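[Meeting: bench + compute handoff]

Bench side (C.D.) handed over the final construct sequence. Compute side (W.E.) agreed to return the predicted structure before the next meeting so the bench team could plan truncations. Sequence as handed over:
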Amino acid sequence: MKFTDHLQLMQSLPQSDLPTDEPLILASGSPRRAQLLKAAGYEFLVQPASDEAECGLCSRETAPELVARYAYRKAADVALKIQGKNKTGLVIGADTVASVYGQILGKPTDQQHAESMLRRLSGRRHDVYTGVCVWSVATNRCVVEVVRTELKMKPLTDSMLANYLESMMWEGKAGAFGFQDGNDWLEIVDSGSESNVVGLPMERLAEIFADFDTLAKAINPFGENPPLSK
């Protein structure tokens, strides 16, 4: 099954005109985010941020705060490199985590870690948060927002869990699962954003592009704290 076959929304993802004439740049090596942008009809370049852009969990940091900071740092990492070469670009940074009862679940480090995450999520509702940063290098302004989608996972039997772990589809995915993997044990609550769970909230991204001039804030490119939109 192809990625685009499973996600029906891939056939009608919203697209908006870009707010500047700068080239669109995805600051992520995630194939899923690239597929979402491509399916929506955007033309873009891929320039992944450095690994150092993700610097660990700060004390008492919530899931929304974490993904906002990571998205901002990823966009900043690429934006500053572009700026240093006297070039321009409209940079998209993004980061996604799952959260259950306040515990943040990022990407599993190995199969045992993935199993632990999935057992914690089994039979429970949980949230998926994606932080999005759209940064205009030409104007040195950006928008940082966080989108939340609630999911519920059916109770996983030992055989369901073993089959999924053996498939290795959990690798590189927040919470050790991918909504796009075709599992019937995941359900989105209250018509939340499917693309947000995959890694990039395309509906909100189109709105950010359309309202960029209103939403964008001037930034200190060396600052640590993202200027979150209200």
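W.E. noted at the follow-up: Residues 96 and 130 are 4 Å apart (CA to CA). C.D. will use this when planning the next construct.
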